[in-house]
Amino acid sequence: MKREYETVIGLEVHVELATKTKIFCGCTTAFGGAPNTHTCPVCTGMPGALPVLNKKVLEYAIAVGLATNCEITRDCKFDRKNYFYPDNPQNYQISQLYLPICRNGHVTIQIGDQTKDIGIHEIHMEEDAGKLVHDDWEDCSLVDYNRSGVPLIEIVSEPDMRSAEEVIAYLEKLRMTIQYLGASDCKLNEGSMRADVNLSVREVGTDRMGTRTEMKNLNSFKAISRAIAAERERQIELLEEGKPVIQETRRWDDNKEYSYAMRSKEDAKDYRYFPDPDLVPIHVSEEWIAKIRKEQPELQEEKILRYQTEYDIPDYDIQILTSNRHLADLFEKASALCGSPKKVSNWLMGETMRLLKEKNMDPEDLTLTPENLSDLVTLTDENAINSSVAKDVFAVMFDTPIDVMKYVEEKGLKNVNDSSALEETIVKVLEENPKSVADYKAGKTKAMGFLVGQSMKATEGKANPQMIRTLLEEKLNS
């Protein structure tokens, strides 16, 4: 009888915080830049250079902790995690082991109609390492310390997830929450959100944990799903063959859909942690926590409830619009300006989503303004432009900030609503299409669509389609 296995998954999620400067020095955290130009003696680990904590890092960490239902540690400190690797300039990392800033939290995920709480063991602050660039041509590795010292929070979950679907739901919920807080942009492609997957398998029905492995180099949700499926199968295959699963860190190659061992998995004792002697302990007062809590923005759950009473739009639209703070802000501001929330929602749910997917963009990359969207809705509401012209204008303003009203005027895109001016065009279209006229009079109603199309073509799409149809009917039925 074939044995059945259960997957047990916990995540270590590293999030680069959206501070302007690094965690312990004044160097910029801007992404990119020439190698080793965003550095100073502190973040390159020069002897005698002393770190000073960036207060904003602590505030972001507390904000994320509050939003994920964590207890905030009132008195915490930093520790040194000792390891030797070329991208680690001091040969230790400043992190938190003994007293992390946040503990014992949870986030609630939804899979279909089911909800589930995923426990958060802790959130701690630490500094990022540099980046190794492997040059295959020269057969060497180069190190860029621009990222060294960029502030991180590491969110360590409990091993509560049982499938890739739950993992992705958890990561999406974390990313959305952190983006709402403005604590990070959470761009996986730029490394500002990274997830290490700790996975083990065990026979269904047993409470005993299996031997876990940790997988790194996961920079997209699709890669995470593929890595989980592959590692699950690899471990089951070993167990079925009577071989042990080795506790180790593995690197995932998404192109080959294969993981390989990097090193044996370390325990805390291997890092020889001790309190950092250069940084003073941190005291977080009740007043400070209350201030940060008061400044927390409205999160998705609260927005959903408000939208359901405030806006007459479908629940599906509400779920999508509130899944991203930038999208929600755009919707609310444009709706307030034009007073037509359903039509604003239609543009965001339709053309905006289509173009975002087509151009492989995130909602945060949108340059579309509430004013432009509101003006477009107003122009269509007033019948100043037709739907076809509106789509063309939207495509332009999606890419380029323009004055919509001025653009429509200068390009001569407004509807021709003067019936006397249109009559001449309609008479000409009827004269040029006697067969369609005969078809319509013989009861073939599809001929009307053709005649409307020809009339719109003759007016270069600027006529009011409904007026065209009305005038055609009058002429044909007279």
Main beta sheet strand tally, sense and closure: 9 strands, mixed
Radius of gyration: 30 Å
Number of strands: 16
Report the sheet-strand fraction: 15-25%
Give an account of the 3D structure.
The chain is an alpha+beta fold and 478 residues long. It is built from 15 helices and 16 strands. It has helices at residues 55-67, 164-181, 221-240, 286-294, 300-310, 315-321, 325-338, 341-358, 370-381, 387-399, 404-410, 419-432, 434-441, 446-458, 465-477; strands at 5-16, 71-72, 75-76, 79-82, 92-95, 102-111, 114-127, 131-135, 140-144, 151-157, 193-203, 213-216, 248-253, 258-264, 274-275, 282-283. The strands form 4 sheets. Strands 2-6-7-10-1-11-12-13-14 form a 9-stranded mixed β-sheet. A hairpin with a 4-residue loop joins strand 13 (248-253) and strand 14. Helix 9 packs antiparallel against helix 10 (387-399). The protein is elongated. The termini are far apart.
Q: Brief description of this entry?
A:
The chain is α+β, with helices and mostly antiparallel strands and 478 residues long.
Spell out the key features of this protein:
478 residues; three-stranded antiparallel sheet; nine-stranded mixed sheet; alpha+beta; 15 helices; single chain
